[in-house]
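Dear colleagues,

I hope this message finds you well. In preparation for our joint manuscript, I am sending the Phosphoheptose isomerase (Methyloprofundus sedimenti) sequence together with its predicted structure, so that both groups work from identical material. I would be grateful if you could confirm receipt.
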Amino acid sequence: MSTVANDFSDVIQEHLQIINQLTGSKPLITAASKLIISTLVSGHKILLCGNGGSAADCQHFAAELVIRYHKNRRAYPAIALTTDSSILTAHPNDFSFDSLFSRQVEALGAEGDCLIAISTSGNSENIMQASITAKQRNMTVIGLMGGDGGHLKSLVDMPIIIPSKTTARIQEAHMIIYHWWCEMVDEVDHD
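The corresponding structure tokens are as follows:
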């Protein structure tokens, strides 16, 4: 029988340490919330891309924006580029997995839109290419990353970096950030 590397208390302590470090990123996280709000209220959309657990985060965040978070309010346009199974299988088959998201940004992104690029390593090639394409289309790019931000940090307008190498802790911090962004969107207008 294998043993667990960390006691659950150790996991909680690691989580709390990472979450407490978010206060150092508060100005950038706040600026990103204002950008998301201004993008949405001006009639533009949010596109999101990520791999694995970050893909699930894209879907989660998009659903909160389109449907609602806590308060009833108008629906906002947010598209997780991680959900169309035909695109997700056809593009890598016909072209390359590296350009999977950039192709969708090319098709769906427009000037004034915002791309939220999520990569726990900051080095996912398909996320970097999507960010480059978004910038070419005069979109603003918010990056949610971990570790040292990898190569992605230099390709985005707002690099929000979680200083951890543990994927689970990075994703937990990302969720807290985008849930707070949802709360800020809820405050814009509601019934």
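For the figure legend, we might mention the following. The chain is about 50% helix and 15% strand. Residues 26-186 form a domain with the Rossmann fold fold (CATH 3.40.50.10490).

With kind regards,
E.M.
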